[in-house]
């Protein structure tokens, strides 16, 4: 397993060891002891799976209180995945990092508590899996606007409008949200 840091301290891109053979491949997508050894001592309470067609944008979501750390991966298709730093004390508040996750590259992306998270699907029939460190708490969930100019995420949209949920089409501006960590 190889761990790569990002431009903002906190999020990590994890390249798992993939064992290929004539049957296909095998990889460990989560191993508590190995991750702890690597400095990520995590306890997960919920696993999620979403399925989307190309051009769907989910996010940018965060819970306050009850923030969730998320360990993310794609098992079919591909996404452009984004984390936005909402940690009050961070010198990087409001900044974002983006990483492509795909069934092909098998990357894991760790988004710690204190970040808003979202992704754009780059292929039809994308299956997105993630583990969360805290339970879903809809009463505490908020959406940061995916297109907030103060955040300025460069989504690979090629001029096409993304498909959004009703909730995400009326996300809050960075200036409206209360940072939570
Ligand atoms: C997130 C979530 C949703 N739901 C339900 C609520 C709703 O009826 C339906 C769809 O929910 P949403 O529209 O919020 O799903 P979605 O937009 O896919 O929400 C997800 O987006 C990405 C970007 C994240 O980071 C996740 O943490 C999560 O917020 O599923 C749960 O029961 N448990 C959950 O943990």
UniProtKB/TrEMBL annotation:
Residue stretches spanning the membrane: none
The keyword Transmembrane is annotated on this UniProt entry: no
Keyword Mitochondrion in annotation: no
EC number in record: 5.1.3.13
Alphabetical UniProt keywords: Isomerase
Pfam families in the record: dTDP_sugar_isom
Pathway: Carbohydrate biosynthesis; dTDP-L-rhamnose biosynthesis
GO MF term list: dTDP-4-dehydrorhamnose 3,5-epimerase activity
The reaction(s) this protein catalyses: dTDP-4-dehydro-6-deoxy-alpha-D-glucose = dTDP-4-dehydro-beta-L-rhamnose
Function, as annotated: Catalyzes the epimerization of the C3' and C5'positions of dTDP-6-deoxy-D-xylo-4-hexulose, forming dTDP-6-deoxy-L-lyxo-4-hexulose.
Subunit structure, interactors included: Homodimer.
Family stated for the protein in its record: Belongs to the dTDP-4-dehydrorhamnose 3,5-epimerase family.
Name the record gives this protein: dTDP-4-dehydrorhamnose 3,5-epimerase
